[in-house]
Amino acid sequence: MGSSAVAFAVVLLPGIAAWWTGRRLIPLRDDPALPERLMARRTRLAQAAGICWAGQLFLPGGALWMLAPGLLALLTGSFASRRALFDESWRLPSYLAWALRLGIASGGFWTLVAAAPSIVEWAGGSWLTIAALAAVLLAWSLWFAAIFRALIGARRLDRSDLQPAFEEILARSHAKAPGLYHAGPRGGRWVSALALPSVRGSAVLMSDTLLDLFDRDEIAAIFAHEVAHLEHYDRRRCLFMLLAQWLIVLVGVVAAPVVIHSIDLGLQSWIPGIWFFLIWLTLSVRISRHQAHEAESDRRAVEFCGDGPALARALTKLHALTRLPRRWPLEMERTASHPSLARRIQAIEAAAGIPSPPLAAPVVVAGRVPDRFVILGPERIEWLDGVPPETPHEPAAVREAAASARVLRYSELISLRVATAGAGGTLALVAIERDGTTHSLPLREEDVGRVQAALDRVDARLTRGRRGSVHHGFIASALSACLLAVTVFSAHVATLMLPGLIAAFRQNPAALVALGVTASAQAGLWFAGLIDQSGWAAWAPAYGPSAPRSEIGLAWLAIGILGVCALLLGVARAREAPESRRVGIGLTAGALGGLGLLAWLAVVVSALPGPVAARLHDAARAMPSATLALWGCAAALLLVRLPRARAGAATLAILGVLPILVGSTWFADRFVRDPLRVSNRSLTSEAREAVTGSQIHLDKIATGLRVSPSGSRFALQAWAGREEDDDTDDQAPARAPMLVGDFSGGSRPIEGDDLGFLDEGRALSGAVEPAGSLSFWGRNLQIGPDGRLALLSPEGAVLLVDLSSRALTRVRLAGGAPRAFTVVPAGGRIISLSRRPQGSTVTAYELGQLTASAPR
């Protein structure tokens, strides 16, 4: 209960943050930078929700169902500020009901498709469940538009004053006349218009707020934009999309569960998660390609309605009512489904042949720092430093008094906007050149309105940055989150955590490249045997010490493949958008450089007081961050393309090779002078099959296997805990008596906490005080009477190592990996204890003849 409470509290944190930050925004409802503040707040809340909601899954007691109360808390926490800032009058239950209906109508179908394999598995994989789920999804796909309208309560639109304008627009279009509907919540503000294409009849839906607050020409222009969408999604395209959706449904509902039950791999449980990830990744790519279609729909809308200014006014009013900023951050500008208002107005004016009015007079803006100024002119912007405080705020006087100046034409910029540090944070005028160089001027509160008005005039003169699906933020976030999830469940996470979190929530090429290099390099080092397995295998929650090497290898292979994908994505983004090369470079390189420095210090400290060479060798193998962090930092620095950055990257890359050399067998063989360390030469290997000689089944769960010298008798410790508890726990509150028996079936209890055989007829038992503890079994080293070492391999085989002859014998037991085992050299027998449902099994194996031999 306590562990679940912690996970539940983590899920609620974004809702608490939404309530707290919303309180600070309510007094700023008349702030000219309120849209920018709201956008910054939404971004940070989304990042916080992603971290908390995904992170609780890795906490004890975390579960997927906790996402529902987390979303409810986020909506509830946002309600008070939303109601005040949007002038709404509805109550919380009405708001939550509308958000639920709109969410199901918009994303319910694809959420159900993405969760289909998990639902089928949860229901037991019955064909009845598969058929019912497939029928629901196929029907939902066919009647999507009708179901959407029903869920949000849409009604027929009957406005005689709009009919002539609508008919004129339809006469200029190739689209078939759609059904007209309107909908909206009572007391709430929902400003939107939607085109709902369908093979069963398309429709256009407008919100009640839009119909109430927009004039006739503006509504007609919005309708023309939606008709342009329907013209694009004609019946042929809709039929193709319907068939594609049906195919996806059949794969998710039928094929994926069949694959889960057909393959025999340890990673079967990953298939539902991989399917969920692929569905939303595909949708994100599709959304990222929608922006070009939106721009084309604006152009067609101007042709249909013949009134470009009306469309520009309508879009401006829509952004004002929804509190969306006119100018967006560069990353969002590239990846959003719609262009920013500034870009759309620029395109509309070009399509309508309307010249953009220039700025009437230069605007002088003094920064928060007394000696810094910016002059916004009709064709260029000037950044001035070293201006004396007493200088008049006139363009000529400021230019004359400035100690230094930088002049840029607007055509040299790809972004110029007012940015905020967060809800209630400081504001700054930020400009980004085509090569990624950034300029910033902290603004005074009283100047924000003048700056926003001036930017409205110069927006059309900026150069548009490149965009494409490769820049979509969700792709980087999803890829990074997937890599982090795989790593957390199966591998050592210290090095990958830093670039992974940065790439997931502050997408930039530097973080993606660093994440790709660290992930792929760590996978490569593991396959090469240059880092220790024990350090992560004991920690990783997905695999215990007996995890088969094939499953461990698949996990590392997945990490390597995802790392290469992250590397390629980061390089592609840096090439297509050179201005993004320096974004996040300080955070990424600084974090990884600090981690690498700490790892190096840990390696050096571990070598003291000595023997230095041996301790350095062990520390270097156990601390891969000493290499990987430096390589990730070097990869990030290489994106900057500056001589000093490249020199630093080369230095870090060379330093990162040193721990690999120190941790290698070459270093150990030549420099380690440890009398307990043998030469790391290869072992000759043979494989034997263990033949079952005798076996006995017990009706009790047991542990603590003890065997007589000849292997004819054994002693067990009956497990006193619950069946579902871990029978390897030696800290049980009570211990049952020892059971002594043989393979004929007889057994008798002997009081005591442990027992050792003196010979075939005598045994010594003893008790331990309650404060003491005993270790009854383990998977580590055993030393037999003949000096042979015995241990369990990760695959569950018994490994017998003869150090004198350097021979390795791998014995695979027919019953699988045992809970405990004992090697009896006399007669070549292995006595094993394994667990079965409702009891235990003791088996005596006889070693057979040599079946295979290969040098290793």
Detailed description of the structure:
- 49% of the residues lie in helices and 17% in strands.
- With 856 residues, it is of the alpha+beta class.
- Strand 15 and strand 16 form a beta hairpin.
- Helix 1 runs antiparallel to helix 2, helix 3 packs across helix 4 and helix 8 runs parallel beside helix 10.
- The relative contact order is 0.06.
- The C terminus is likely disordered.
Decide which structural class fits the backbone.
alpha+beta
What profile does the largest beta sheet have? 8 strands, mixed
Widest sheet: strand order?
19-20-21-22-12-25-24-23
Number of strands: 25
Compute the separation of the termini in Å: 50 Å
Rounded mean pLDDT is 79
Specify Rg, calculated over alpha carbons: 34 Å
List low-pLDDT spans.
Answer: 467-472, 534-548, 726-733, 768-781, 849-856
| Helical residue percent band | 40-55%
Strand percent estimate? 15-25%
Summarize the structure.
Helix content is 49%, strand content 17%. With 856 residues, the chain is α+β, with helices and mostly antiparallel strands.
What labels would you give this structure?
856 residues, alpha+beta, 8-stranded mixed β-sheet, 4-stranded mixed β-sheet, 28 helices, 49% helix, globular, disordered C terminus
Write the SSE topology:
Layout (H helix, E strand, L loop, with lengths): L1 H24 L8 H22 L11 H19 L6 H23 L1 H7 L4 H16 L1 H9 L2 E2 L6 H9 L7 E5 L9 E4 L6 E5 H6 L2 H17 L2 H28 L7 H19 L1 H16 L2 H14 L8 H6 L5 H12 L10 E4 L6 E4 L3 E6 L9 H7 L2 E6 L3 E8 L6 E7 L4 E5 L5 H11 L14 H18 L3 H12 L3 H19 L6 H4 L11 H28 L8 H22 L5 H11 L2 H14 L4 H20 L2 H7 L12 E15 L3 E6 L5 E6 L19 E5 L4 E4 L3 E4 L5 E4 L15 E2 L5 E4 L5 E5 L4 E6 L7 E5 L4 E8 L2 E17 L1
Parallel strand pairs: 2-4, 12-22
Antiparallel strand pairs: 1-2, 3-4, 5-6, 6-7, 7-8, 9-10, 10-11, 12-25, 13-14, 14-15, 15-16, 17-18, 19-20, 20-21, 21-22, 23-24, 24-25
